[in-house]
Amino acid sequence: MADPTPPEEDTSPSPPRLLRLRCAVQHYEWGRRGEASLVARLSSAAADDDPDTARPYAELWMGTHPSAPSSLLAAAANDGGGLLRDWLSRNPAALGPAVAARWGGDLPFLFKVLSVAKALSIQAHPDKDLAEVLHALRPATYKDGNHKPEMAIAVTEFRVLCGFAGIQELKDVLRTVPEVEDLVGPEDAAKLLSVKEYHGVNEVKSCLRSAFTKLMTASKETVSEAITKLIFRLNAESKVRTLTEKENLVLSLEKQYPEDVGVLSAFFFNYIKLSPGEALYIGANEPHAYLSGECIECMATSDNVVRAGLTPKYRDVQTLCSMLTYKQVFPEILRGVPVQPYVRRYTPPFDEFEVDCCSLPPSELIVISPVPGPSVYLVMAGEGEIQVDSMSNGAKSKQGDVFFVPAYTEVKFSASGPECMQLYRAGVNSRFFS
Question: Which of 20, 32, 307, 345 is catalytic?
């Protein structure tokens, strides 16, 4: 009997272990313009061109979301380019088995840089169940059926409204801001003023929900009249006393969004200033608005936003007021935890993502051990070399470069320029694999 024919040797090229990405810029009106925008500087450095000085550069998207998907630079891919999402569908092993099993053939996270010149909308992101319902009902407005927990890491001072203020602060608002009290109405104002924390969480939430909904659903005419009175009063009082930070914020928001109910709603929220390197995370159904500054942002792969103020875009006030948790907790501020020399890790309580920040001094080398999920790297500043696995030669890397690195890949960075090389890595939360 003849020997069986030996199997043919697989001569197809193995998938590359390092992919350079071309990433999309979003030119939303609230973005910083031209060279003043970190997004513009990063995208123009990557493309070797100059930004348009008159155009806003708001967000740099690094990921696979169809609204602004990243593509492969032709030189980085064996098949000559195309979308990262399509490449992943052909190379699911790059995600690692655990990630592929949980989230299918796609990145579970979306990585961004934001350059904020003007306040973003008062908004919240729906949980998974609500996202699926909204997407089914209004797919043109709610682009996908996924939830969108997110985390922002300040690059410059970054100002945010996030979550409802404590009950005592809200009572002070009703006592000292008559324009808000008038819109809330005497009945709801009295309930909120008389409620005590020992009455129970649900009763406090019920009073807050009723008062906030009354404010947000007030007629355009009464809102406009209330804001006119508020601005006149604050400008007059500023001549005889020092205005509070929240009052000064409200004055600046009114200049950006005249006659907008979001100006008044700012009194209901925690006002937070993040210093560079500080971060906060925002769960589903929590109200927030980014106000100014620049940040690294990471989130679950989604573009679902329910808006209700400080925006010319579509407002879904009833949905927002009904979906909020009405928790009154000051957000946890993360400062990153050292995981090895030069690297700090920001770990939110969400499976989809974590972010590492690496600041590598000149002539130093760092080895990042293989992880069982995919990673996206951004070179924020400086220049150097990146090397993966056993590659003998590294690839040059400079400000603005973005790389996709598959699961189970060792990465080495070395800084070669005169300045510190700063990198950010987005990956699946390490706790997901433990």
Answer: 307
Q: Known catalytic residue: 431?
A: no
Are 374 and 427 a contacting pair, CB within 8 Å? Answer: yes
pLDDT means per 10 residues, the chain with 434 residues, are: 47 69 96 96 86 93 95 64 92 96 94 98 95 92 90 98 95 96 95 80 91 96 97 96 97 97 97 98 96 98 92 93 94 97 97 97 93 97 89 82 96 92 97 94
pTM of the model: 0.93
- The residue ranges of every structural domain in the chain are 160-334, 339-432
Of the candidate CATH numbers 3.40.50.300, 3.40.50.720, 2.60.120.10, 3.40.50.10890, the domain formed by 339-432 belongs to 2.60.120.10
CA distance 285 to 131: 11
- Ligand-binding site membership of 150 (annotated): yes
303: left (phi over 0), alpha (psi -120 to 50) or beta: alpha
